[in-house]
Write a structure and sequence with these properties.
alpha+beta, Alpha-Beta Plaits, Calcium-transporting ATPase, cytoplasmic transduction domain A, Rossmann fold, seven-stranded mixed β-sheet, 24 helices, 24 strands, binds magnesium ion
């Protein structure tokens, strides 16, 4: 039985995911298949003697999706290529749109009408085939699920207006004029609809979240091999072969491969993997003490100083001397610590000061040995380590978070069938009124309804507002990776916040030897405006909870300083996650702000995740929002901006709808029934359609002007 994770292309919604999963599970030889929509992959277990990945790919392609079975192609690469293609299509479509508009406004009226129409036909056809093909493919896919989305309406209105215009180009004169009717073409509408909607898609695509990179960086924290001590021998083995109870050796600068318990009381000096006996000192130079060196240096410097001929030389000596003695000072501190094993556990605790670990104490996979050579007994290996737990949570949280369904798609479910029904009703109304004599008007009105109701304005309403919102946030040093995040920040009513690196700036000068006796103010300081930021959050209705891996006194001290009422100390990554989940269970929309790997689990499960720009890459990868700089007031700013943006989206959608409500009866020719001898011409239908799109864009740009 073979097990493999294969990237899937073309899945857009939960419906697609269910469809792919059902088809995969229906293939002969596939034991089990589970689709993860967030990472756009399918985990498949199959009998390789009965089915091959090629066969699965073939089967999935038949449903309109694709499997990436070549190992060397990454999803990111494919997505980048798809984005580049989309951008190219938008540019080409704009060129087509401008050409067609120029022809329909100029050439059509002054030149040869037939030639002008035939030219537009070629351009419109090229536009559909090259730029708009995907809408037709998707509409067909939706139709096979007996469903409809915005793509359906785009395909329908461009398709129908193209076909009808083609008919008119060749037979318009013979058919309509014989019946005493004027006729026209809608090639411009057919082109412009695709141009506008594609532009909206491009804007939306620019703000897409990539989830896979976070998991990859977390996995990168785990070393591939470990050094196992067996008697006098130290052997390097693949990490997968490590067993519980193995004695593992880790040297300075290396990552600890699995969780375990320290066995050496002091640093074990080693050379080429062999233990050196106690008479050897930790460094090559023997018992190296800084003091005699310093005295020696002082003597020579003094001598040089006295010998110096002029003041320039003297001051030069003085500065050289002070540099050298400060280096010696540092060296002396270092050498005094050399017989300890100290470990950078910031990954787990978020605290930058390395911790001294003695025999019997726990060490964790992914943490880094700073000083000394560590020996420990492996306790939790493979999927049982704390790091594996973090990776699993991040993976699961991201996998289970279905992409938020776009408001437009929800509307489309009702809107599209309604428009189609209205269009058909329009046709029947006219036809019923005058039979064959009214047929031209019936068709004209039905097509007008489709063109005018086309969702260009709806398709632009959300992305343009989001684009302006995200741009505005970036100007305020708030980087928003995921458009849905901007929509969701405004709902936040509880914020779990990390301390070190997030609320406070650790003092990196503090050395390990003295860290235990320091007062909180000496190790670190509160970020400027932190208290004000917390106050603003409270005013916005957000309750703040501080969770820190630090000691009780420090946590209580800083909570008091920042004005935070709820706090917990010495928490593990799991506790932060539990806190987020607990608040979610209580019905809160929970935000999480942190900077470290120890925060990633909580960041992954939170409704709104905010990383600090100076933090670890993994935290930034997981989080939807990254704050550049140190000003925490950007969090309340982000909430306000989210409120403004969503307000703008609703406004845009409202106007796009009002517009449809007014224009559809006009397009259907309803005034005609009330004695007005006026009917909308196709040119007006497409001009109005374009106008509504432009007005939505202009409305979104207003957001830029607000503070
Ligand atoms: Mg931290």
């Amino acid at each position: 039985m073979e097990k493999r994770t294969i990237p899937v292309l073309g899945m857009m919604c939960a419906g697609c995911a269910a469809n792919v999963e059902r088809r995969m599970n229906g293939i002969e030889g596939v034991e089990r298949a589970a689709v993860n929509l967030a990472t756009r992959t399918v985990l498949v277990e199959y009998d390789e003697t009965r089915v091959s990945p090629e066969k699965m790919k073939e089967e999935i392609e038949r449903a309109g999706y694709d499997l990436v079975i070549e190992e060397d192609r990454s999803v990111a690469e494919i997505e980048n290529r798809a984005y580049a293609l989309l951008r190219r299509r938008v540019v080409v479509s704009w060129v087509f749109a401008l050409l067609v508009m120029a022809i329909s406004m100029g050439w059509l009226h002054i030149g040869n009408r037939d030639v002008a129409n035939q030219t537009m036909l070629i351009i419109a056809l090229a536009n559909i085939v090259y730029c708009g093909r995907q809408f037709f493919v998707n509409a067909w896919r939706q139709l096979t699920h007996a469903s409809a989305n915005m793509d359906t309406l785009v395909a329908l209105s461009t398709g129908v207006s193209f076909l009808f215009s083609t008919f008119n180009t060749f037979w318009g004169e013979r058919y309509w004029e014989a019946r005493g009717m004027v006729w026209d073409t809608w090639f411009d509408a057919s082109v412009m609809i695709i141009t506008f909607v594609l532009t909206g898609r491009l804007l939306e695509n620019r703000a897409k979240n990539s989830t896979a990179s976070a998991i990859r960086s977390l996995m990168g924290l785990q070393p591939k091999t470990a050094r196992v001590v067996e008697g006098d021998d130290v052997n390097e083995v693949p990490i997968a072969t490590l067993q519980r109870g193995d004695i593992v050796e880790v040297r300075p600068g290396e990552k600890i491969p699995v969780d375990g318990i320290v066995v050496n009381e002091k640093n074990i000096p080693t050379e080429n993997g062999k233990q050196i006996t106690e008479r050897h000192s930790p460094t090559e130079n023997g018992e190296l003490s800084a003091r005699p060196w310093s005295l020696c240096l002082q003597r020579t410097e003094r001598y040089d100083y006295v010998q110096a001929r002029n003041t320039d030389e003297k001051s030069n000596h003085t500065s050289q001397f002070s540099t050298l003695s400060s280096q010696l000072e540092q060296f002396s501190t270092l050498s005094s610590q050399l017989d300890h094993v100290s470990i950078d556990e910031s990954m787990i605790t978020g605290e930058p000061v390395p911790a001294v670990r003695k025999a019997g104490e726990k060490v964790f996979a992914g943490t880094i040995v700073k000083q000394g050579t560590l020996r420990f007994k492996a306790q939790a290996v493979g999927k049982d380590t704390l790091l594996a737990g973090i990776i699993r949570t991040v993976q699961e949280a991201q996998g289970s978070k279905a992409p938020v369904q776009r408001v437009v798609d929800k509307i489309a479910l009702i809107f599209v069938p309604t428009v189609v029904v209205l269009s058909v009703l329009t046709f029947l109304l006219w036809w019923g009124r005058g039979g064959e004599y009214m047929l031209p008007r019936a068709i004209l009105s039905a097509v007008n309804v489709l063109v005018i109701a086309c969702p260009c304005a709806l398709g632009l309403a959300t992305p343009t507002a989001l684009m302006v919102g995200i741009g505005k946030a970036a100007k305020k040093n708030i980087l928003i990776k995921d458009a849905t995040a901007l929509e969701s920040i405004r709902k936040m009513d509880a914020l779990v916040i990390d301390k070190t690196g997030t609320l406070t700036i650790p003092n990196e000068q503090v050395d390990l030897a003295h860290s235990a006796e320091l007062q909180p103010e000496e190790r670190e300081q509160l970020k400027p405006h932190a208290r004000e930021a917390m106050e603003q959050l409270r005013q916005l209705g957000v309750e703040v909870y501080m969770m820190s891996g630090d000691k009780e006194e420090a946590v209580a001290f800083w909570a008091e300083k920042a004005g935070i009422g709820h706090y917990r100390w010495q928490v593990l990554p799991q506790d932060k996650e539990d806190m987020v989940r607990q608040l979610q269970a209580d019905g809160h929309h929970v935000g999480m702000t942190g900077d470290g790997i120890n925060d990633t689990q909580a960041l992954a499960v939170a409704d709104v995740s905010i990383a600090m720009g100076k933090g670890t890459d993994v935290a930034m990868d997981v989080a939807q929002v990254t704050l550049m700089g140190t000003d925490l007031r950007r969090i309340p700013d982000a909430i306000r901006l989210s409120k403004q943006t969503v307000g703008m989206i609703h406004q845009n959608l409202f106007w796009a709808f009002i517009y449809n409500i007014i224009c559809i009866p006009l397009a259907a020719g309803i005034p005609f029934f009330f004695g007005f001898h006026w009917q909308m011409t196709p040119m007006w239908a497409s001009a109005l359609m374009a106008f509504s799109s432009v007005s939505v864009v202009l409305n979104s740009l207003r957001l830029k002007a607000t503070t």
